[in-house]
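Practice problem: predict the structure.
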Amino acid sequence: MADKVRRVDYFYAEVADQPGEGARILGKLKDAGVNLLAFTAFPGVAGKAQIDFVPENSEAFAKAAKAAGVTLSAKKQALFVQGADRVGAAAELLKKLADAKINVRATNGCASERGFGVIVWVKPEDFQAAAKALGA
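Answer:
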């Protein structure tokens, strides 16, 4: 199976860094029928945590997040890659971007028995070139 590269929307939210906050938010999204392609959560500053969301449907996600009382950032773009799991899959993607002289700001990947998924964040001014380098 060839890798599938998609341009995706993502949003982030700063939330209270306390037990159960992630479960509360993800539960509200589940109840609203929102499917996430990816999410990443990590500590922020001053008692906050940041959650980055990559929804399958941005409009449905934004509506559900608002109903859950979650304040979102403006919509941003990233690249989402899925494919058959193999040794070096992420290295291949990052090499394509390096060869195109594009600096990756952040990335997150995961593999399972069904394949791998990687989300790639680049500066907005590099987004079109990164999409082209990866074939999106």
